[in-house]
Amino acid sequence: MAPQSLSSSAATLTDDSDRGPLFNSKINDAAVPSPPGLGQHPRSFAQLAQTLRDRLSESGEAAFDLQWISEVLGHYPAHDPAEWKQYVFLEDGKYTRNLVESVEGCYALMVLCWAGNAASPIHDHPSSHCVVKVLEGELIEERYEWPEGAQPGSINNTHTTDSGAPPGTPKSEPMKLVDTSKLLPGRVAYIHDSICLHRLRNPHPTTPAVTLHLYVPPYHTCRTFVEATGEARAQRRCAFWSRMGVRNKVGEM
Ligand SMILES: N[C@@H](CS(=O)O)C(=O)O
Ligand SMILES: [Fe+2]
């Protein structure tokens, strides 16, 4: 199956400015040994994309192997911003989702660009494995427990709130933060709905951050949550800011 763009629609962000970020990555040309069975580690962004395509474009989730993917992403040196610069679109106060390639039902590879202080809302990743590598800058990941009654499969639970709301109404209470970690360049992180919810934020007020996200399989809608109450907002489409290096037209999702 050939890679194709997602026909996904709106979620984050907006506006039309294309501000080129400045990067200061140091080149690291140290030889990277390959673990047994892994094969050659990708040495460039193009090789990385090819390696993922070869493995995931036919069978997607059936071929998902977290250890293998972590090693492949972890060893990609990411030393040359020129390799992914075409996917970098920064927008004040926001994060932008920029599609590199995807195969429907199998995987999506994207570059996310985080302006200073930009953050994602607390969200889920419906039926998708999510692997993230920081390419540039620094992010904070905050992980949250699922609010009572909101986890997939527990939609019909019969919990009654203290306020006397109808059965099935989730309790309104602050979401429980279970972990906070700093994601630095080179770091690979993994999340799945069976683990918890999360959000990412760029703690720096002015320095942008860039992350590489692999979703297996891709998802097109997600839920976001209100930290203070645990309320799940309505599902919404996840939009791309650009596809294959080309900025979406106004109104295009
Ligand atoms: N999962 C989020 C980005 S992140 O905050 O993990 C997204 O696809 O927009
Ligand atoms: Fe996420």
TrEMBL record:
Region forming the signal peptide: none
Region named Disordered: 1-42, 148-176
GO process annotations (BP): L-cysteine catabolic process
Protein EC: 1.13.11.20
Gene3D superfamilies the UniProt entry points to: Jelly Rolls (2.60.120.10)
Cofactor(s) demanded: Fe cation
Biased composition (Low complexity): 1-14
Record text on cofactor binding: Binds 1 Fe cation per subunit.
Skewed-composition ranges (Polar residues): 153-163
Gene Ontology MF: a single term: ferrous iron binding
Annotated Pfam families: CDO_I (PF05995)
InterPro entries reported in the protein's UniProt record: CDO_1, RmlC-like_jellyroll, RmlC_Cupin_sf
Root EC class: oxidoreductase
Protein residues bound to Fe cation: 123, 125, 198
Keyword annotations from UniProtKB, A to Z: Dioxygenase, Iron, Metal-binding, Oxidoreductase, Thioether bond
Catalytic activity of the protein: L-cysteine + O2 = 3-sulfino-L-alanine + H(+)
Crosslink (3'-(S-cysteinyl)-tyrosine (Cys-Tyr)) position: 130-215
Family of this protein: Belongs to the cysteine dioxygenase family.
PANTHER family: CYSTEINE DIOXYGENASE, CYSTEINE DIOXYGENASE TYPE 1
Protein name listed in UniProt: Cysteine dioxygenase
Organism, as annotated: Gonapodya prolifera (strain JEL478)
Phylogenetic classification of the source organism: Eukaryota, Fungi, Fungi incertae sedis, Chytridiomycota, Chytridiomycota incertae sedis
